[in-house]
Structure prediction request, 432 residues.
Amino acid sequence: MVRNNRNSKLVVLAAGISALALTLTACGSSSDSADATATTSDAPAEVEVVDGVPATLVGMHIEGAEGGAWAAAPFGALRMWDNGTAWSQIELAKGEFKWGNIDGLIENATSKGMTDIMMVLGTTPEWAAKEINDSDYPQPGAASAPANMADWDDWVSAVVDRYSDSFTSYQIWNEANLKNFFNGTPAEMADMTKRAYDIIKAKTPEALVVAPSPSTRLTGAFNKFFPAYLEELGKLDWPVDVFAIHTYPKADGDPVARGALIEAAQQVLTASGAPELPLWDTELNYGLAGPGDLPKQEIVGADAAGFVVRTYIDDLRYGIDRSYWYIWSLGAYDLLGIQAFPGSDGEQGFFAIDNWVVGASYDGCEESGNSVICNFSAAGSSWIVAWAQTGEAPYTTPENSQLVCDPLANCQEAAGGSEITLSEVPVRVYLQ
Prediction:
């Protein structure tokens, strides 16, 4: 097997394909094989994509972006978090601002051609906090609601006044349902959302206001906070442009488990009577330790790249308009199950998504048994991306197929009617 350069969009033929877990046999079909025209199931509602899948489907966090670091992997939107850019890290005393990290990040992003940047407005400085706990992230008092909401208003105004030409979206808070990030009430967070919305829209009406992102993996904390927050937000006439979630599955969870978290959040939004607004996943990865004593899971090789590819195609299937991967880094990041640093297999998954999905017309997915078969086209060409939800699944290639490749660019010729075995690693089926 031959692997191409990680940023190449060229296809490389290989002599074998064992890494794909594909089994090629003689041309023909079998009664238990799924074909490319399988009947659509009751799967998730699909988002309509006009003029090709936008690059903003793929969002990113970048460790050290404020100091000049940048991801080699392609992406279309940047979220500022863990970059020393939170309120508690900028306004160290009332009216005294250290703008350096934000300025550095914007200068860096602008120089790289990045135009879609999200600012996360939380967290509370110690001097402004109603309640100070040493366990708060990232500093004592950071998880508190402000003692005086006028301080929050002043902060939001200062950010928007200074960076109105730089930020395309503002997120109110990070993981507001977790006590180490926010220990106030849903009503307080709804009030802060409304206040920020009014300030932002008065100054930059085109900017998007993104609701706080609850973590979905701790279902107790999610169910306690998110419905109550939505109820309070509804009383204020829904002052947001985008809803947000975080979909880290539990340590042993996979893209199927993530899909269940998305559906659970969508059900809560529907039950609350929330308006139909875009839904963004503003932070995700896999294999993180927990909940409880579940150990961290290392996800490597084609599995890592495959999870990345499935994540963003699943976004199209479930109606998620964009997802921000956590995190591209210069080296291994111990917290994470899938690494995205230069040369990593996880990083290669982003090259595959850029090649297979971004800019293409998304023509829908079908489910047949355990198989998922998704259709794409661009510039007169068409192709299929297919995988088994769990384990393996038989599949017969369409009559006009010619090549099958995995996200690491391991490829094998596959004539029409070839019987292959799909694994949980997605493959691209090139059609003539």
In short: The CA atoms of residues 244 and 280 lie 5 Å apart. The mean pLDDT is 90.
